[in-house]
Specification:
alpha+beta; elongated; about 170 residues; two-stranded antiparallel ribbon; 2 domains; 7 strands; 3 helices; five-stranded mixed beta sheet
Length: about 170
Amino acid sequence: MQMNVSQLLQAPVGTTRNFQIKEVIDVINDGQLHPIEGKVRMLRTSRSILVKGKLRTEVELTCSRCLSPFVSPLNLIIEEEYMPTVDVFTGIPLPLPDEPGSFTIDSHHILDLTEAVRQYSLLSIPMKPVCDNDCAGLCPICGQNLNQGPCDCSAQKIDPRWSTLIQSRKQ
């Protein structure tokens, strides 16, 4: 997702450009290519280019309840500032930004969104992904996927120390 922004860097402050994104990249470094689509808007500021956009992609995850693989949609709202490394008019190298992890525009005036998209994708993946909100998970005794039907395990034995509490709850 590389774009030449030399014309935008030469434009006056406040100039915007809109880009339609439709590419296939390895979004989460899992070795698989995922389609990514959406729109980004680039705004020329006094020192950089501000990129704002809404992108969509899908990634394959493993359900944290039943351990089945499923495809999860990801909606990304990106807002990042890209700093030039070379003056577009003179070709003189510019000092690198002081902020660690800042995004930069390379010496050929190419702005690469790939790393920002990868970071936003990783942040938007749920900590405990589930294939369905009603996922029944796995039987804790035999490990059968309860979404595929009940298992033949007997009812869980209750620790006798909890019996008084359970009896009071039934009343």
